[in-house]
Design goal:
The protein is mainly alpha-helical and 379 residues long. The protein has three domains: 78 residues, no CATH class; 93 residues; 157 residues, Intergrase catalytic core (hpI Integrase, Chain A), CATH 1.10.443.10. 53% of the residues lie in helices and 9% in strands.
């Protein structure tokens, strides 16, 4: 199939726009997926990610739709792995023979204590991909804390990992986190893929969009009132979080307002980017072109630095949290027809898939409001 095939070109462009990092091509009348993927379970420790072509076995064009669904499934799995939300499961993407072989591996290493297992997992996890400056914070929250009960076990077995997950409430965020951590231990120790799949399955059922109680985000007036009463040194970083939707630690450590009004973030949880001002008039309200910061230790972790903003909020008697400023920015962007979801996601420093997942209920509400306005006008 020539590379100029219109359907393939359109779908690959759409996949790129969604941030999936997967492309489709055709060889021998069958669709293949191409993506840069993490090391396979059989690869040596420390192996680097590399590009693979995955044969779907699906005929083109008769099964083109099914192949596109597989591409999106792979893209979502890779994105969740990139964000550290879960380990990448290679099993669905291996040839059938290798899948069976992987499922039949049932040997477990002897004499591994819980403490040793956690240490080995930490080393393995750190080598799976290039980690950003927030990696240590991610490890502490997503792995170190959930795996703490394993530290006293003298000889770790698969039953301990299953029990670790099952000890958390079903369908909860803590269950998902324990599932992710336990599955990562199993992968790091090269235990059977069937166990890894079981641990992941136990963690299913949690969704941030469904599980979070709908929060009342602060109105612009409340945001203005809070920032107006802050000290001059805290006014600048808090205003950045409100105007640009950046993370607290980004505002304190890595942000510079450009002459154009864009915010340049030099580093942080998801690396460098530029962010849009919304609303732009707040730039002048708080003189954001003039950088002002409170005294703090910039050598502390991103998590600890970001927490300083929460302390400033509490001292000021704020009725909302620093991250609510970020969420409020996202909702303002949803209601601005000039800002596409893709551009909003880039401005906030995450993928379109994550953006859509987190803010789906606000997207739905805006769509329903717009439709109702049309229906009311027509009646």
């Amino acid at each position: 199939m020539p590379p100029s095939d219109p359907w393939l070109s359109r779908q690959n462009a759409a996949l790129k726009l969604k941030g999936h990092g997967v492309t489709l091509d055709v060889a021998g009348g069958r669709v293949r997926l191409r993506a840069t993927m993490p090391p396979r379970p059989t690869d040596p420790l420390g192996a680097e990610p590399k590009q693979y072509r995955i044969s779907t076995g699906l005929a083109y064009p008769d099964q083109a739709t099914e192949s596109l669904q597989l591409a999106e499934q792979l893209g979502n799995a890779l994105e969740r792995h990139r964000l550290g939300l879960e380990a990448f499961n290679w099993t669905p993407w291996l040839p059938k023979g290798r899948q069976r072989k992987q499922a039949q591996q049932d040997e477990q290493p002897e004499g591994v204590s819980g403490l040793q297992a956690v240490r080995l997992t930490r080393q393995w996890w750190g080598k799976q991909r290039r980690r950003g400056p927030s990696a240590e914070d991610s490890w502490k929250v997503d792995y170190d804390a959930p795996l703490a009960p394993l530290l006293e076990i003298s000889s770790l077995r698969s039953e301990h990992l299953v029990a670790l997950v099952e000890a958390t409430p079903s369908g909860s965020r803590s269950r998902r986190r324990a599932s992710q951590a336990a599955a990562t231990v199993a992968r790091a120790l090269d235990w059977p893929e069937v166990l890894v799949s079981q641990l992941r399955e136990l963690g299913k059922g949690y969704s941030a969009a469904r599980s979070q109680a709908p929060r009342d985000l602060p109105k612009d007036e409340a945001i203005e009132a809070l920032i107006d009463r802050l000290s001059a040194s805290w006014q600048w970083p808090v205003a950045l979080a409100a105007v640009y939707g950046c993370r607290p630690h980004e505002a304190l450590l890595f942000a510079e307002v450009q002459p154009s009004g864009l915010l340049r973030i030099a580093d942080g949880k998801t690396g460098a980017r530029q962010s849009l001002a919304l609303p732009a008039e707040w730039i002048e309200r708080w003189s954001l072109h003039t950088k002002r910061l409170p005294a703090f230790n910039p050598e502390r972790s991103h998590r600890d630095v970001g927490a300083l903003m929460g302390q400033a909020f509490r001292r000021a008697g704020a009725e909302f949290q620093p991250y609510d400023l970020r969420h409020a920015w996202a909702v303002r962007a949803i209601h601005n027809p000039k800002i596409s979801p893709s551009l909003a996601a880039k401005s906030m420093g995450h993928s379109l898939a994550v953006h859509s997942s987190v803010y789906q209920r606000w997207f739905d509400a805006h769509e329903m409001e717009s439709l109702q306005a049309v229906l009311s006008a027509a009646s």
